[in-house]
Amino acid sequence: MAIRIVKLGSPREENEGLRLGTVRRPPRGVKKTDFAIRDFYDIWLPTLSPSQALVAEARAIETDRGWAGFKRRFRAELDKSDGAAVVDLLAVLSHRMNLSLGCYCDDERRCHRSILREMLLERGADLVA
Hints:
By secondary structure, the protein is an alpha/beta fold.
């Protein structure tokens, strides 16, 4: 059992489990009934997405220093909300079932899902490399 970090909209892997969309907004132009069919997500979990202000900030980041600042602010947002508790829950669930979580970004290295990966590992989650 483990969690896989994915790009939403990418083809599902075998035994991927329930796919969670950790995004601020649902995919544009896609019917709600087609989210899972088109490999976006089964469950929308915006609790684990950055605020709209942080999303806008992330799009403008061009340096490692800027990314480090985004990372700090995103973690702080999660700590102030239920986000940290949800990450704790997912870490525990990773030992009992297959899950996947993702975002639309092409490059995980500059996406909040890389930060979620770190947080899950810090909490002892089983992750697919």
